[in-house]
Amino acid sequence: METNNDDAAKDERKKALQKQSSGFLKYSGMATQMLGTILIFTYGGYKLDEWQQNKVPVWTLVLSLLSIAGSLHLLIKGFTKK
Length: 82
Description:
Pfam families: ATPase_gene1. It is a single chain. The protein is mainly alpha-helical. The chain is 90% helix and 0% strand. The protein has helices at 2-52, 58-80. Helix 1 runs antiparallel to helix 2 (58-80).
């Protein structure tokens, strides 16, 4: 009789661990996506400024701020999605 209770407790712990792991993977994936997006857009802006020989890094500023806004939008959208 106790083996059934032990098996049920093990199953519950396993399900809880899987749920916790999937949450960690979800949020670490979102963070990696945000970082990648911001880095790529900022680097693209830097290269555009370099190509146009701008004294003020206009493209770097614009694209980095745009990527931050876009990343935050996707982050909020991901949090509200169930």
